[in-house]
């Protein structure tokens, strides 16, 4: 099929409304006539927060930022004596844009991955220092005011890279309001904070249509910022109520459009699902705090299902979850010092708000609830095997073991060619794992989002779908022969398959028990070579007598009923954004239609 026809078919799948919104935004910026380009606002002046009258330690504070700066939850630098360089990128040696340029003139990737610049300006430190200041730490409060004053001065509205993205502005709004809330100052805010939040909401409002056109968490984040920021500004700006109503309307619309009734989210990503869930959780907690009108039953139902989705994906012992789908390191509302790959604080907060249950019992994951005044709810039991067919996920669980099979149900554009990828967890260890994302910068995103970076079959050294752009695949796959998760005694089963645009077919069936996992892969159709890959947990793995083992687990592979000796090598993994490590990988290559059976024993 020609490239032009593939592109046309893909754009048709994206939807005329979304394309029109994105096109109108880009044309408006190019012409210089977009309303966002005519905005003006004064530089906000300190103070932003005033002294806490009496310490109010509702929970243990988050002290992660007390002595260091953090990027994406893993890269750390010592805390400087004064405010940091808001335009520095510790991951890139390239010259970075500064605040002398209009934000719309700055490219996303002209000087390396701009997310390295944006990270400190997401103001996770504001939330963390608010918790320590609320516990009586006067130095944290002073540092908050000094750093915010420096940020406002060096990032004047609407200049420089930190004003470029409406979602980045939205994250700042949510964090600034949350900090005021933690400090008990959201009802009587300082003029400096009011002006800073006003400048941000004013930036978000004119481009929110573009955010909706992207059909992802940009829309949910910006809607939440409009709702939360607008209602925060009521009494301080005549536009505030209109902004809040617009945000509420878009939150309702996004919940209905992007979240399926089974809880699956449009981005097909575990970490982006968390971003979305945290966003709605903060909006609902804020609504309760301010005693605002309830959200609709439909929104609350979708969020309850979205909570169940992430809860089912989360490993109870470690709080980690499969690294499936795009992962840019985003994490909202750092009211606890938990690792970025601990999903329990998000699930616990959402479960209390949208299910009225306590997902995990006592633990540090309850601190966000304490800071926001959300009761824990009744005991919620354990996550069990479930298929989320509207998003394309089988989740099989048996005691401390979990298997997740990803299959293609694409109502929205896929971000990775990961059809029939399989994740396996046992006693908190991610035995079979996804490669992650690493970076959105050119030259790195292609491999990590491609088929070779997943635990699946790769035909003829190509992706399962043709790549049309940095974030766009064509010829979206369709699932075939799907059998939803089911339990037969001590074994849970599920399966799915697909046929790609070249006619190659892959069908995968899995069975999970307390003792291990069996995966049956059938390949057929026209192809010259097919490669099965299993990406393994770090450790000492060896091949002996056709068996791959690490002392506690073993992997055996059969080709059409006969044992086959796999190749043991290494490959790349990125568990955190812009972090890359080497891990073991086993692979088997065939040159004809065949059946491969993989047996993993614990």
What is the strand and helix layout of this fold?
Layout: H1 3-14, H2 16-31, E1 68-71, E2 75-78, H3 115-118, H4 124-134, H5 138-154, H6 166-182, H7 191-204, H8 208-213, H9 217-233, H10 240-258, H11 270-289, H12 297-313, H13 344-355, E3 357-358, H14 367-372, E4 378-379, E5 386-388, E6 393-398, E7 401-406, E8 422-426, E9 429-432, H15 445-449, E10 457-459, E11 467-469, E12 472-473, E13 480-488, E14 491-499, E15 505-512, E16 516-524, E17 530-535, E18 542-544, E19 547-549, E20 554-559, E21 562-564, E22 567-573, E23 581-590, E24 594-601
Parallel strand pairs: 3-4
Antiparallel strand pairs: 1-2, 5-6, 6-7, 7-8, 8-9, 10-17, 11-12, 13-14, 14-15, 15-16, 16-24, 17-23, 18-19, 19-20, 20-21, 20-24, 22-23
Task: Describe the protein in words.
This protein is of the alpha+beta class. Among the domains are: 1-33; 35-207, no CATH class; 388-601, Beta-galactosidase, Chain A, domain 5 (Distorted Sandwich), CATH 2.70.98. It contains 15 helices and 24 strands. The protein has helices at residues 3-14, 16-31, 115-118, 124-134, 138-154, 166-182, 191-204, 208-213, 217-233, 240-258, 270-289, 297-313, 344-355, 367-372, 445-449; strands at 68-71, 75-78, 357-358, 378-379, 386-388, 393-398, 401-406, 422-426, 429-432, 457-459, 467-469, 472-473, 480-488, 491-499, 505-512, 516-524, 530-535, 542-544, 547-549, 554-559, 562-564, 567-573, 581-590, 594-601. A hairpin with a 2-residue loop joins strand 18 (542-544) and strand 19 (547-549). The mean pLDDT is 95.
């Amino acid at each position: 099929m020609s490239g032009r026809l593939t592109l046309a078919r893909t754009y048709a799948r994206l939807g005329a409304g979304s394309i029109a919104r994105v096109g109108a935004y880009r044309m408006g910026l190019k012409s210089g006539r977009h309303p966002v380009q005519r905005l003006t606002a004064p530089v906000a002046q300190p103070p932003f927060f005033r002294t806490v009258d009496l310490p109010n330690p509702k929970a243990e504070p988050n002290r992660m930022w007390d002595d260091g700066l953090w990027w994406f939850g893993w890269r750390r630098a010592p805390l400087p004596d004064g405010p940091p360089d808001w335009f520095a990128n510790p991951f890139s040696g390239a010259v970075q844009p500064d605040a002398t340029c209009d934000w719309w003139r700055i490219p996303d990737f002209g000087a390396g991955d701009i997310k390295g610049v944006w990270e400190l300006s997401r103001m996770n430190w504001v939330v963390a220092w608010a918790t320590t200041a609320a516990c009586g730490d006067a130095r944290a409060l002073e540092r908050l005011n000094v750093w915010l004053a420096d940020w406002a001065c060096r990032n004047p509205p609407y200049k420089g890279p930190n004003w470029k993205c409406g979602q980045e502005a939205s994250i700042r709004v949510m964090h600034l309001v949350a900090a005021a809330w933690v400090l008990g100052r959201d009802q009587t805010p300082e003029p400096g904070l009011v002006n800073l939040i006003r400048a941000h909401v004013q930036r978000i409002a004119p481009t929110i249509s573009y955010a909706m056109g992207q059909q992802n968490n940009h829309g949910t984040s910006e809607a939440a910022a409009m709702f939360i920021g607008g209602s925060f500004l009521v009494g301080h700006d005549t536009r505030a109520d209109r902004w809040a109503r617009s945000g509420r309307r878009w939150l309702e619309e996004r919940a209905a459009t992007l979240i399926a009734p089974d809880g699956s989210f449009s981005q097909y990503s575990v970490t982006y699902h968390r971003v979305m869930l945290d966003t709605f959780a903060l909006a609902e907690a804020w609504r309760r705090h301010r005693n605002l009108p309830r959200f609709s039953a439909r929104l609350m139902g979708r969020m309850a299902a979205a909570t169940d989705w992430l809860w089912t994906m989360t490993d109870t012992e470690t709080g980690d979850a499969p690294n499936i789908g795009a992962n840019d390191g985003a994490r909202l509302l750092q009211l606890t010092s938990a690792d970025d790959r601990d999903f329990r604080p998000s699930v616990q907060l959402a479960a209390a708000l949208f299910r009225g249950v306590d997902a995990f019992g006592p633990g540090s994951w309850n601190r966000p609830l304490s800071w926001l005044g959300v009761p824990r709810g009744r005991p919620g039991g354990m996550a069990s095997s479930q298929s989320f067919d509207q998003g394309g996920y089988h989740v099989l669980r048996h005691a401390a073991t979990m298997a997740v099979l990803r299959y293609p149900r694409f109502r929205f554009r896929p971000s990775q060619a990961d059809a029939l990828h399989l994740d396996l967890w046992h006693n908190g260890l991610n035995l079979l794992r996804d490669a992650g994302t690493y970076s959105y910068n050119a030259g790195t995103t292609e491999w990590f989002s491609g088929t070779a970076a997943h635990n699946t079959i790769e035909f003829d050294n190509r992706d399962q779908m043709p790549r049309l752009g940095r974030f766009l695949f064509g010829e979206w796959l369709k699932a075939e022969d799907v059998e939803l998760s089911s339990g037969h005694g001590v074994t849970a089963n599920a399966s799915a398959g697909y046929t790609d645009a070249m006619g190659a077919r892959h069908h995968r069936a899995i069975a999970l028990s307390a003792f291990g996992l069996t995966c049956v892969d059938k390949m057929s159709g026209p192809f010259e070579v097919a490669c099965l890959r299993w990406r393994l947990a770090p450790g000492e793995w060896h091949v002996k007598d056709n068996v791959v083992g690490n002392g506690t687990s073993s992997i055996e592979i059969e080709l059409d009923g006969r044992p086959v000796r796999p190749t043991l090598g290494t490959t790349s993994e990125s568990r955190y954004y812009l972090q890359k490590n080497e891990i073991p990988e086993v692979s088997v290559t065939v040159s004809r239609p065949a059946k491969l059976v993989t047996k993993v024993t614990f």
